[in-house]
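Amino Acid Chain and Its Fold in Token Form
===========================================
What this section holds: a protein sequence and its matching fold, both as plain text.
Structure line: whole-number tokens from a learned vocabulary of local backbone shapes, matched to residues.
Purpose: to set a sequence beside its fold so the mapping can be learned.
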Amino acid sequence: MGMPVITPSTTTRSQAVTDIIESVALEETALSHILNAEGEKIQKVVAMEGVTPEILLATNKSVESMVNAVSKLEMILHSKLATFENCLCEKEEPVE
């Protein structure tokens, strides 16, 4: 197996930063869909006939776990954006 060949890119710094910001926005959208699905899960369980406290607690624990995971991803996305906070003001030059 040979070494991969990486060809130089003609992408500008501004375009690269814009692409990263767009990818973060898409990830944020995906996370919002996950949170919405978790809310729907709670609504369905609460509306079930004969739901027990144990089922409600298990559902709550599951949703809490997912919300914690989403929160961690949100912090990572925030850090990613903060890294590029001042990059769009710089001089246009190709990214290497």
